[in-house]
Write a structure and sequence with these properties.
Helices cover 11% and strands 36% of the residues. The relative contact order is 0.17. The protein is mainly β and 232 residues long. Strands 6, 7, 10, 14 and 17 form a five-stranded antiparallel sheet that branches. A four-stranded antiparallel sheet has the order 13-12-11-18, with no helix packed on it. Strands 1-4 form a two-stranded antiparallel ribbon. It has one helix and 19 strands. The longest helix is centred in the first third of the chain and has 25 residues. It has two domains: 77 residues, no CATH class; 145 residues, no CATH class. A hairpin with a 2-residue loop joins β15 and β16. The C terminus is likely disordered.
């Protein structure tokens, strides 16, 4: 193959991958907690036909060399974990994280995954789960007689029950952070997995990541007026 055609082929291949990345970003524009990818390019090795600064036949120093590139390649994709904008919802268990951090999710095989998607639900046992039915970790179970459900700024989950207006703590949310979030492995279902590149998770209370204005009373009996709720 002619060198020019080969170089053009590498460009077409790289741009095809880039368009696939962009298309996936656009396809997930409405996906809660989705983080867009950016393709990263590098040029390929050069054919050095003449070094810069080489001597000419007249014993003068040439100011430039003759370096012929051989194309381009995509060396990776990087996720942008910048926090998105918050939106109001009418769902009772929507939570949001401002800034860094991930919710911890227990997968059916016992491993822990991580997500920015704060769209949660209750299963038949009253346990807080994702849309796929995976449990929030640490587990939080809301009893059947709960009248209100509140998440405090420090991640404390509290309820009140019928006949007892005093607030009762039933759990604590904990978030995980990574020194290199871009090193996480995306596996679908809005979940990420720890890798050697991401580093080990740093677990803590979400005092600095879960915004107090967006983690207030989220649930009341159906007779109560609907509340404004948030998700990211």
């Amino acid at each position: 193959m002619l060198p020019a055609l080969w170089v053009a082929k590498t460009g077409l291949s790289a741009q095809d991958t880039n368009l696939t990345v962009i298309s996936n970003n656009l396809a997930n524009v409405s996906t809660t907690g989705f983080k867009r990818d950016r393709a990263e390019f590098q040029d390929l090795l050069y054919q050095i036909k003449r070094q810069p600064g080489a001597q000419s036949t007249q014993d003068s120093e040439l100011p430039t060399g003759l370096q012929v590139g051989t194309g381009v390649r995509i060396v990776g994709t990087q996720k942008n974990f910048t926090a998105g904008s918050l939106q109001t919802t009418e769902q009772p268990l929507d939570l949001a994280i401002n800034g860094r951090g991930f919710f911890q999710i227990l997968q059916p095989d016992g491993t822990t995954a991580y997500t920015r998607d704060g769209t949660f639900h209750l299963n038949s046992d009253g346990q807080i789960v994702t849309a796929s039915g995976f449990a929030l970790e640490p587990a939080v179970v809301v009893p059947n007689d709960a009248q209100t459900f509140t998440v405090g700024q420090d991640g404390t989950v509290s309820i009140t029950i019928a006949g007892n207006p005093a607030s009762q703590v039933i759990g604590n949310l904990q978030t995980a952070d990574f020194i290199n979030p871009a090193g996480l492995q995306a596996q679908g279902n809005n979940l990420f997995l720890e890798t050697a590149a991401s580093g080990a998770p740093q677990i803590g209370t979400p005092a600095s990541t879960v915004s107090a204005p967006h983690c207030r009373t989220l649930w009341k009996p159906p007779t109560s007026a609907p509340l404004r709720r948030w998700s990211t």
